[in-house]
Design goal:
178 residues, globular, five-stranded mixed β-sheet, mainly beta
Length: 178
């Protein structure tokens, strides 16, 4: 199996797009990733949904708000538990390129916690993934597409993947798997 380290790039861009769901069906496993900053032939990084947060975005299902910080909304205190809303321990979006032009459907995201427990998630048609499985930080992660595995270079203390993987995020780029 081929393994490589994901190279990330940072591109500072204005945040001006509105929040919204990915158009299309709501099928696919409810899991995903994100791509961040960079250029793809001069195309600017897509900041759509990056500013979405508790109380200011709408939508539902596996294709909801690709690129937003899913865990910020799907956490205790933001929903009534009796409404059936899940509290997620890890979530994000995987894109097809470093500018976030489209979600990567069918990628496999593996997250391993400090106890050695691993959760494996398949991305939706919007590239989204999420889990309610208990995870104990620090976390490591990898994305697999067609047998190629891309490992995250460092362990992290949060499963809020899109909180760092955004156009001007701490990770330096969106999560992507070409």
């Amino acid at each position: 199996m081929h393994r490589s380290i994901l190279t990330l790039a940072l591109l500072a861009l204005p945040l001006s797009l509105a929040c919204g769901d990915k158009e299309g069906d709501d099928t696919g496993t409810s899991d995903g990733g994100a791509t961040d900053g960079g250029t793809d032939g001069g195309v600017e990084c897509d900041t759509t949904n990056e500013d979405c947060g508790p109380g200011d975005c709408e939508g539902e299902g596996a294709n909801m708000l690709p690129g937003s910080d899913c865990v910020a909304c799907h956490s205790p205190g933001n929903f009534e538990e009796d409404e059936g809303d899940a509290f997620w321990t890890a979530a994000g979006t995987v894109f097809v390129d470093d500018v976030g032009s489209d979600g990567k459907s069918g990628a496999i995201v593996r997250i391993t916690d400090s106890t050695g427990s691993t959760v494996e998630l398949a991305t939706s048609s919007a590239g989204n993934f999420y889990t309610t499985d208990p995870l104990v930080p620090p976390l490591s992660a990898e994305v697999e597409v067609e047998g190629v595995v891309i490992e995250m270079g460092t362990e992290v203390e949060t499963g809020a993947c899109n909180s760092c993987h955004k156009c001007e995020g701490d990770a330096g780029a969106k999560l992507y798997a070409p």
